[in-house]
Amino acid sequence: MEDSDFVIKICDTAKKAALAAGDLQRHNFHNYIKVQQFFDHDLKLETDRESEQIIIDILRKDFPDFSIITEESGMLCADIKSYDASGESYVWIIDPLDGSVNYYSGVAYFCVCIACYKMTKDQLDALQKNESLKNWGEPVAGVVYVPMLDEMYYATLGGGAFCNGKPIKCGNFKKLSECLVLVTCGSLVASTWHIAHLLPEISKKSLKVRMFGATGLDIVNVARGGAGVFFQEGPHLWDFAASRLILQEAGGYWEDLYMGNGRYKVMATTPHDDVWNEMKEILSKEED
């Protein structure tokens, strides 16, 4: 276990960086939207790049020897500087603006995601090469900031999960029929078709299904007890690294399965076996 004061400093720095990026995003929302690049079913905004630079500058000021994996280069990047005696390095994992298409469209459902993990050189090298990993390191801290609501979600390993200083826990949903299910369709067309195939069965067995379009924010909505389930095919590590720790510290169940090319299938649920098993049964039918 890491020194608690050191971990708190890591988390506080991540919160400081997320707040600074969130301030920029609030200022630019509805006022300044410039697209830097369009992709199939996705885009990158100037605000993405500016938010990322704000975050990196703050993180490097407080922790200059930490490595960094960030989204906005379009690939996994790491600035490898040092490893400790155990052969591990601290690694920041950053999604500066999760929900860029929502932001571009004027939909106020987006967030800043910053995580810190400890990884070995082999783990970090595998991530850079988009290779499969069953274990991609130990989470240290995770922060998800929602600028338009001024909600700061955060967690440290073994320290619990919080929103604006108050503890959060997953909801006490015992059956899928009680659960709001959150689904995100990303930029992979095949995965979108798979999800579309699953929706009739999920809609029939759940309370409601909703698609909001920001992975990190969807997962913390399970962590805070709003929704009972989240699943997605195709997110990258930076999409869920921070919110995964928050969910687990809030008591939730979690699974990520590697799909290839740096993408994962992920599922988060409230911590009740019936909910988890009902969702797994539905998803297994799709795999048959």
Low-confidence blocks of residues? 37-43
According to CATH, the homologous superfamily of the largest domain is Fructose-1,6-Bisphosphatase, subunit A, domain 1
Quaternary organization: single chain
Q: State the separation between the terminal residues, measured CA to CA.
A: 41 Å
Describe this structure in words.
There is one protein chain. The chain is α+β, with helices and mostly antiparallel strands and 288 residues long. The protein folds into 2 domains: 4-167, Fructose-1,6-Bisphosphatase, subunit A, domain 1 (Fructose-1,6-Bisphosphatase, Chain A, domain 1, 2-Layer Sandwich); 176-287, D-Maltodextrin-Binding Protein, domain 2, CATH 3.40.190. It is 38% helix and 29% strand. It contains 8 helices and 14 strands. It has helices at residues 4-28, 46-62, 100-105, 121-128, 189-205, 215-223, 237-249, 273-287, and strands at residues 35-39, 42-45, 67-70, 88-98, 111-120, 138-146, 151-156, 160-163, 166-167, 180-184, 208-210, 229-233, 253-260, 263-269. It has a 7-stranded mixed β-sheet, sandwiched between helices. A 5-stranded mixed β-sheet has the order 11-10-12-14-13, with helices on both faces. β8 and β9 form a beta hairpin. The longest helix has 25 residues, at 4-28. The chain is globular. The chain starts with a helix and ends with a helix.
Any descriptors?
2 domains; seven-stranded mixed β-sheet; D-Maltodextrin-Binding Protein, domain 2; 38% helix; Fructose-1,6-Bisphosphatase, Chain A, domain 1; 14 strands; five-stranded mixed β-sheet
